[in-house]
Amino acid sequence: MAETQQPTTPRQGGRGPQQRGGRRDDRRNAAPEAPKEFEEVVINIDRVSRVVKGGRRFRFKALVVVGNRKDKVGVGVAKGADVQTAIAKATDVAKKHLITIPIANDTIPHEAEVKVSGARVLVKPAAPGTGIIAGGVVRSVISVTGIRNMLSKSLGSTNKVNIAYATVEALSTLVARDNWLSNVGKTAKKPAAKKETK
Fold first, then answer.
1. Shortest CA distance to 83 belongs to which of 64, 55, 68, 56?
2. Is 90:77 a contact under the CB 8 Å cutoff?
3. What digits encode the pLDDT tens for the residues 156-174?
4. Is residue 69 part of a domain?
5. How far is the C-alpha of 130 from the C-alpha of 127, rounded, in Å?
6. With contact defined as beta carbons under 8 Å apart, do 168 and 143 qualify?
7. Element (H, E) at 77
8. Does residue 32 fall inside a structural domain?
9. What are the residues facing 156 on neighbouring strands?
10. Contacts 24+ apart (CB under 8 A), 186-192
């Protein structure tokens, strides 16, 4: 009886331990992670509710900021049945409302102050080596941009959504140094001087 027994081998169709391990490794290696163009930062998540006939319906509201760590940034707010859905929706909204920031020497070209609802945000350029002097929501928004030195102050309301929108609005009002009216005036005077000489 002992001679007739053959060593058992795993079937070709079956999943042996070696095949299974190989498949897992192949699956991991087959999908290399592509570098993301935009960085996403979740600033705040709130649980919100609405009263319906049967009681209360709870949902989640996410505040997300996206940026490419260069000159683009956007803020989005969205609600979802769970946290992941709310974050995904808010990220899509933020990517649809990107703005371009004029950056000069790792800081902003001039100061700006914007009021959105009850929140007021003041942003000012800073000397090299200063870093980002900002707190809370403003710091989260600036962290995904290419700005390295900046001063800021949040005034008025402490509503995180309004502060985030005010920060983005302040950055969107910035004008590049080349487009300042003083520079435009200087270039416009030159042809006038030539006409006078003629």
1. 64
2. yes
3. 999 999 999 999 999 999 9
4. yes
5. 6
6. no
7. strand 72-80
8. no
9. 119
10. none
Structure tokens at 55: 């009681």
- Please write the tens of the pLDDT for every residue from 46-61: 999 999 999 999 999 9
Q: Which two tokens stand for residue 66?
A: 């996206």
Spell out the residues 6+ positions from residue 183 whose beta carbon is closer than 8 angstroms to its own.
177
What lies within 8 Å, CB to CB, of 136 at 6+ separation is: 154, 160, 163
Q: What angle do CA 101, 42, 79 make, to 5 degrees?
A: 105
> What single-letter amino acid sits at 138?
V
Provide the token pair at 41.
């930062």
Q: Where are the alpha helices (DSSP H) in 62-180?
A: 83-96, 137-143, 160-172
Domain that holds residue 53: 39-178
Domain presence at residue 108: yes
Rounded CA-CA distance 121/159 in Å is 12
| Measured CA angle at 126 (ends 134, 160), to 5 deg | 20
Q: Is the pLDDT of residue 154 over 60?
A: yes
**Quick check: is 93 in a domain?**
yes
Q: In what order do the strands lie in the sheet with 112-116?
A: 112-116, 119-125, 150-156, 132-133
**Largest Cα–Cα separation, the chain:** 121
> CA angle, corner 150, sides to 146 and 151, nearest 5?
150
